[in-house]
């Protein structure tokens, strides 16, 4: 029960309660235009079976679907409307949750004709852009390429070293293979984690696993995003992290817990 098997299980057909609202007019999403990033987001949704809410133009009540498959080479993806109905020809807005901490939204305009092998499957090209609304309370900083950002900790006596892909004042995001995640589960406490935040800051902190999300990259294959929050950090560390997140600089090399 404590391994990665449960989080990697694909969700079942969407329910009416899964429907999401559009990103509000007062929100401040950022725009994602890189086809690589769009492909990764769609692939993550396909692997997890996350519900996709579909609003045809002029409709108040949405349709529900899942992403059945993604082909980044074409590039296109297949939507499965089983249990719902296909949209009428024209423009639709699609919304989905990414890992529980972000909302993805994009528009498509097409005939919505079914694929030859399944009347509830519809193929669509990648959108040229997507809106992404990040719901994290704290500013997130993505780790730069080529700089050493690592987390080191022990599980049952085994040393685990994982790269950081982002961090904030409230927590860190790690990246791992599915094999490296055995022994991890949502709610798992990680004590005495050594965090190397580039060449200028090393801290030791306790973490709590808050998110396990499978995804696939074109270069590395199956990966798992591990979202962790800090557990009981000192005021000194909070101030140091705030300064580091804001300016990218700290005054000394190491900070004790």
Explain what this protein looks like in three dimensions.
With about 260 residues, this protein is mainly β. The protein contains three helices and 16 strands. The protein has helices spanning about 5-10, 35-50, 235-245, and strands at about 30, 50-55, 65-70, 75-80, 90-100, 100-110, 120-125, 130-135, 140, 150-155, 160-165, 170-175, 190-195, 200-215, 220-230, 255. About 10% of the residues lie in helices and about 45% in strands. The chain is elongated and about 55 Å long. The strands form two sheets. Strands 1-8-6-5-2-3-4-7 form an eight-stranded antiparallel β-sheet. A six-stranded antiparallel beta barrel has the order 10-11-12-15-14-13. It has two domains: about 10-135, Pnp Oxidase, Chain A (Roll); about 140-255, Thrombin, subunit H.
